[in-house]
Amino acid sequence: MRKINVLLVLVGLIFLANIGFAQDFVDVTAQSGILGGGNVGFSWGDYNNDSLIDFFHSSAGRLYINMGDDTFALVSTSPADAGFGSVMADFTGDGNLDLLMTQGSALALIVNTGDTLSFIDTTAGVKLDSITIPDGAICVPAAADFDRDGNLEIAIVGSYGAPTPSPLRLAKFNVETGTYEDVAVTVLDDTTHKFESWNPTWVDVDNDGYIDLFLPSIRVGFPTNRSGLYFNYNGEGLDWSEIDIDGSDTDVSAIASVWGDVDNDGDMDLLAQAFDGAAPFYLLLNNGDATFTDAAATSGISANNQMRGLSLGDYDNDGDLDLLIGGGGMDLTIYQSQLAGGDLTFTDVTASTVGSEQQQHRSALFVDYNGDGKLDLYAGWTDPNFKLFKNQSENTNNWIGFRLSMTEGNNKSAIGARVRVVASDLSMIRDIQAGGYGGMTGGNLVAHFGLGEAEEADSVIIDWPDGTSTELLAYSANQYYDVDETTTSGIEETQDLPKAFALTQISPNPFNEKTTISYAVANEGPVKIALYDLLGREIALLVNGVKKPGIHTVELNAANLSSGIYFCHMQAGEFDTSQKLLLMK
Fold first, then answer.
1. Rounded to an integer, what distance in angstroms lies between the CA atom of residue 447 and that of residue 484?
2. Cα(258)–Cα(273) distance, rounded to whole angstroms?
3. Cα of 492 vs its chain's centroid, Å
4. Is the backbone peptide bond immediately before 384 cis, with ω within 30 degrees of 0?
5. Nearest-angstrom CA–CA distance, 431 and 154
6. Is the pLDDT of residue 222 over 60?
7. What pairing do the DSSP bridges indicate for beta strands 398-405 and 480-484?
8. How far apart are CA 122 and CA 91, in angstroms?
9. pLDDT tens digits, one per residue of 485-542
10. Phi/psi at 4 (nearest 5 deg)?
């Protein structure tokens, strides 16, 4: 009897242990129907316009359609030779996602006609085959409309196997001839720089509304092979600059890199891992003026020169961006972020999320493949080291997502758009990207936000690739929304417009570092909102432009201000009012 009791106790302890250590992600690779083979590259996008995210295995040249039941069906194989990476984007303006693939040192453009799930190789017809790099292979291209002409430009550089670094190639579509031309010589202020780069990235670093180009070089040692930024000046040209970290121009050698607003202050930060030399890990927080502060030392993230794929996403929907890492000689790793009181820290939660011993994965991406609002993840490499994990977490945090499209031009997939969501005390931004995300991944075409306990997004601001902006109100949580530049409102389509101008709310107040200012606009016209100190000096200009009727919000970030009393002043035509704010640090 005693032996039986002991056995029951042991069984009970094992049962409780299994409950206590249930993982947030479950491996669904075997049942998914996705085959192995090839190498690391992949891209995700709604290829057949059914609101489900489909999958293209770049290295194997296979297109899988999402069946909506955690399985994928192989429907087509690319006629082009397989390469390392690919991106999905609408290059032709017909509303269908096309495929831009690498083929060694060249590219292939595979057009989606929308009639059948098949490929039509148009590379030669648009003369994209004439734009190549001299040596080695392209890992992944990056596409964006940097000059706001409605067409996607393509950036490529050499990387894998290159005996020497290669110059940047910038393919621009000529509407008159219907072909692509290399415009690097006429667009770049300095063409002497050469790169050995896995993932060039288009990202608006300085928040001027024009998308810039980040080119990370894998290793140091070549005199002209240095990582840096081509800043976009009003769509007319790209000017070279190294990255200013803590007041010094720095060569951020990076074999793995990803951009995202990890501190939720409204600008894009850079996470990067060096490959050789001292191989530091960088967590570069954007100061808002195109300079950066390196916060890696206090972040909790361990440097590892085996990192290859980095991805940012809010897998627990708490409003903070978490970090997914795939590596060439390290296990798949997840860091959970926490932003509290202005302090940003990351905690390794691999054991409770995907478990240990997940082998090496050279590329990785957070992606909500089943549309339930919980970010899943895909990690790629050769057999058997490619994995699809489903997020089965039971946390009850809310979320919201946006699928964007443009009604004009050839960039119908709105590549380069930026979405800002304000929900309760959260303010977050996401970019729509084609390429340059993670490591040989095709970017992210859906803007996903965790909302924590907030039940709706109070406001949604979309900065479109053509330079226009849309401000929308009140979207209910736990849904994906399809939005284009003609969308005018969220769930409150019949709401009464304000009958008078007003500073409606400043919350929280008193506040520590950040507060949200709500204001009402009765008639379309110029509105100015500024912050003043007790001496009447203007400290910050928060709003200065024409606003449409409605309730608007703007965030005040007082990280660089001293504690004390300030005044928020709003002026719109003859309307003039102020409210007192108390900053307590």
1. 13
2. 10
3. 28
4. yes
5. 17
6. no
7. parallel
8. 11
9. 888 765 443 345 677 888 988 888 888 888 888 888 988 889 999 999 999 999 998 9
10. -65, -45
Strand order across the beta sheet in which 86-89 lies: 86-89, 98-103, 106-111, 120-121
Report helix, strand and coil shares of the chain as percent, to nearest 5. 5, 45, 50
11: DSSP letter: H
Helix (H, G, I), strand (E, B) or coil at 449: strand
List all residues 6 or more positions away from 217 whose beta carbon is below 8 Å from its beta carbon.
Answer: 165, 195, 196, 197, 225, 226, 227, 251, 253, 254
Instruction: Please give the single-letter amino acid code of residue 99.
Output: L
Distance, in Å, from the CA atom of 239 to the CA atom of 245, rounded to the nearest integer, reads 18
- Among the listed residues 263, 208, 312, 295, the one whose alpha carbon sits nearest the alpha carbon of residue 427: 263
Residue whose pair of structure tokens reads 């954007």 in the numeric block: 286
Residues 89, 111 contacting (CB under 8 angstroms): no
Amino acid at 199: N
Say which residue the tokens 């059948």 belong to: 116
User: Each residue of 21-33: pLDDT tens digit?
Assistant: 468 899 999 999 9
Q: Could you tell me which residues come within 8 angstroms of residue 137 by beta carbon, excluding any fewer than 6 positions away?
A: 83, 84, 102, 104, 105, 158, 159, 160, 161, 162
Query: What 8-state DSSP symbol labels residue 450?
Result: E
pTM assigned to the model? 0.79
pLDDT of the residue at 500: 83
DSSP string for 169-238: EEEEEETTTTEEEE-HHHHBS----EE--S--EEE-SSSSSS-EEEE--S---STT---EEEEE-TTS-E
Question: From the CB of residue 145, how many other CB atoms can be counted at a distance below 10 Å?
Answer: 26
Q: With 0-12 CB in 10 A as exposed, 13-18 as middle and 19+ as buried, what is 118?
A: middle
Rounded CA-CA distance 558/514 in Å is: 6
User: Which residue has tokens 């002497």?
Assistant: 192
pLDDT digits (tens, 9 = 90+) for 426-480: 999 999 998 866 566 777 899 999 999 998 898 999 999 999 988 888 888 999 9
Q: Which residues pair with 421 in a beta bridge?
A: 428, 460
Q: Identity (one letter) of the amino acid at 322?
A: D
- Phi then psi for 129, rounded to 5 degrees? -70, -10
Burial, 371: exposed, middle or buried (Cβ in 10 Å; 0-12, 13-18, 19+)? middle
Cα–chain center distance at 50: 22
Residue 430 contacts residue 375 (beta carbons within 8 Å): no
End-to-end CA gap in the chain: 64
Q: Which residues contact 160 (CB under 8 A, 6 or more apart)?
A: 84, 136, 137, 139, 198
Q: Is the dihedral of CA 268, 411, 66, 38 positive or negative?
A: negative
Q: Give Cα 192 to chain centroid, integer Å.
A: 29
Give DSSP secondary structure letters for 12-72.
Answer: HHHHHHHHHT--SEEE-HHHH-----S-S-EEEE-TTSSSS-EEEETTTTEEEEE-SSS-E
Tokens of residue 194, six digits? 């050469």
Single out the residue of 244, 347, 256, 254 nearest to residue 298, CA to CA: 347
